[in-house]
Amino acid sequence: MAEFVDSAVKNIDARVAQLKDELAKLEAARAALVGGRRRGRPPGSTSSKTTRRRGRRPGRPRGRRGATRATQALELVRSRPGITIPEIATELKIEPNYLYRVMPKLVNDGSVKRDGQGWKPA
User: Fold this and answer.
1) 105 three-class SS
2) What SS3 class is residue 57?
3) What angle do CA 7, 9, 15 make, to 5 degrees?
4) Using the 8-state DSSP alphabet, how is residue 41 labeled?
5) Which of 8, 20, 35, 112 is deepest in the core (most CB within 10 A)?
6) Rounded to 5 degrees, what are φ and ψ at 23?
7) For the chain, what are the domain ranges?
8) Are 96 and 89 in contact (CB under 8 A)?
9) Cα separation, 122 vs 110, whole angstroms
10) What CATH number is given for 69-121 in this structure?
């Protein structure tokens, strides 16, 4: 039984060696036909990240158009000093938790200041 296994392994090894030789010849023939080119970009070419601009389209203005939530909130604070965040949220028909992020930014800009629970123009 051991002789059979040894013989089978030798046959498989011989066939693998033949296939490796044939593969090397086929790869050389292919390279000769296509001129040694590889798929994809040639070496040394620039990547798409450096040649294309991503994000905004040319000519499109940056920033927001119209009134943002911050400017709407600021207008309400100016028209009704002492207004609270829940009242601003009701007027703007948004959730109050969003305004808890917006209002400190307006404080940092120097647009509003806090007065107890309410807000006043700075």
Assistant:
1) helix
2) coil
3) 105
4) S
5) 112
6) -60, -45
7) 69-121
8) yes
9) 6
10) 1.10.10.10
